Task: structure prediction
Amino acid sequence: MKGLKAMKKHTVKAKILVTDKLKVKYNVCYLEQIFYEDDTFEYVFRPNYAVIELLDSEIFQGIPGLNLDLKKKEYVRKNKMPTFIYERTPQSNREDLWEFLDEVGLEYLDHLEWLIRTDKIYTGDSLTVEAFNIPKEARDIEKVACGDTFMFNDVPDISIDNFKVIKFLLEVITKGSFLKAGEYYIDDSNRKTQHALIYPLFYNETKKWHRKSTAR
Result:
């Protein structure tokens, strides 16, 4: 309708990760925090089920406050602090709140931004939070982010270093990214199969590197 003005909002975007024993990071969920000018707010969780399926219960026990068995595309919490956020961020009634904010360079309490910036570790589970990067098309195998698409003429074009290739392929799989290299590809349709093939290779290469470094 004419005359209606869009409400201003402030959005913070993040990704929820879980790290396994080999320090491989799995991007299990996208998280968006939206605050509106009328003081209402909402949190939107978008689980990455194709990545979650790669994990066993020893590594990943779910996201607090979400029933992932429902397989919803989105879990929205309006005007209510989600369990995931409440458990691991300082609340406004803390006496030492300003100390927490000063440590990360915030002038006011922004729960998700604080969680992204802090180096404090929540001990209740192994989930961590990082800033969300906008997906891109790129060839930089050193930086893989959720949703990125990588295009190569063939697998050998990725790198001449076999370990770098294996590590890169595993990151594409676990970060929820996509790859097309000639006839070889990685997407949600074969992510679990590729993980089963690539992870043992990464494990073996990591053990080799560890043995060499300890033998010096």
Observations:
- The first helix runs from residue 49 to 52.
- DSSP finds six helices and eight strands in the chain.
- The first strand starts at residue 9 and ends at 19.
